[in-house]
Amino acid sequence: MLKEFKDFIAKGNVMDMAVGIIIGAAFTAIVGSLVADLINPIISLFMGGTDFSSMYALLGEGEYGSIGEAEEAGAAVFAYGRFIMAIINFIVIAFVVFMLVRAVNKTKKAEEAAPVADPGPSELDLLKEIAASLKK
Question: Per-residue pLDDT for 12 more than 70?
């Protein structure tokens, strides 16, 4: 059983998948920063200073200055601003993945459409030609 597991792990597909997951996690952090640090401030500028991450609705009673204060106090909050940010993150990630898949597909089509060069005669063909010329 251990040998089967080692064989499974050693296969290229599993290693490729592991690398993809690690890169995907790093990419998610980059997109999160892009949305939180670059896109949201621009949207906020056009919406009169509204910050999505701080938008919430209190589902109970009480007065809190921020979503953080409400959460620290244990109040139930409906954090719809964070959900909006998650949607923006998803759209950015989906667009980048679409662009990557599109580029890979274009590369594959270009390789398939490229004319295959004539490899020329094989060694066996050359040897037959030499043998025929020596017989003459």
Answer: no
